[in-house]
Amino acid sequence: MLGEYFCMNQEQYKDVLERLKVRFEHNHHRHEHVSWETYLRVIRNDKTMSIINQMEVTGGEPDLVVYQEEWYVIDCSKETPKERVSICYDKDARVKRKNYPPITSAEEMALTIGIEILDESLYRYIQTLEEFDLKTSSWLKTPKDIRLLGGAIFGDRRYNTVFIYHNGADSYYGVRGFRGFIKI
Questions:
Q1: What is this structure's pTM?
Q2: What does each of the 184 residues of the chain score in pLDDT, given as a tens digit?
Q3: Which of 21, 106, 120, 151 is most buried (CB neighbours < 10 A)?
Q4: What is the rounded CA–CA span in Å between residue 43 and residue 95?
Q5: Burial grade of 37 (CB within 10 A; 0-12, 13-18, 19 or more)
Q6: How far apart are the C-alpha atoms of 60 and 133, rounded to whole Å?
Q7: What is the distance between the alpha carbons of residues 158 and 22, in angstroms, rounded to a whole number?
Q8: Measured between alpha carbons, how far is residue 142 from residues 94, 106, 109, 131 in Å?
Q9: How far is CA 172 from the centre of its chain?
Q10: Nearest Cα to 84, choosing from 71, 92, 93, 75?
Q11: Each residue of 125-136: b (16+ CB within 10 Å) or e?
Q12: Which among 59, 167, 170, 74 is positioned nearest to 121, based on CA atoms?
């Protein structure tokens, strides 16, 4: 969970609301049958807005996605969020990396922001709404049995197909980051 709220002044708050509204109105296919006013009532509290702001600041372009009748605010940037790349999967992998460990990891950064990493099911669902990660890839919540063996999974879209791959959890690349969400 988010340790402490990231403070926003009134101008920042107004700016993030305006960005959310424009994105919401231009992407009805992500949240059919939900009005802006209803969505606004749900997210308009300090904790949620603070998390959404951090998603925005790190390049996530958060938007409401309705999945299996549940509401999620999900990173909907076309490519993996630009301020969340060049990171390995989790702290354990980062600490055990022998050479050139990254500053942080996907799980650590998600915890700091206050979001969860998309799992394979949610990742595949957003890919049915539109095309994501055509040039990048995103770490996905990895099942424990895979993680215990040193691996982690990630996804991308190539050749009009969504692929889920594996890699060592300690690997990191300039085009791999992660997508997150909060359930509201």
A1: 0.92
A2: 344 445 678 888 889 999 999 999 999 999 999 999 999 999 988 899 999 999 999 999 999 999 999 999 999 999 999 999 999 999 999 999 888 989 999 999 999 999 999 999 999 999 999 999 999 999 999 999 999 999 999 999 999 999 999 999 999 999 999 999 999 9
A3: 106
A4: 36
A5: exposed
A6: 12
A7: 28
A8: 16, 11, 16, 22
A9: 17
A10: 75
A11: bbbebeebbeeb
A12: 74
The total number of residues written for the chain in this structure: 184
Q: Residue 122: which residues within 8 A CB-CB, separation 6 or more? A: 67, 72, 74, 181
What's the CA gap between 5 and 52, in Å, rounded? 11
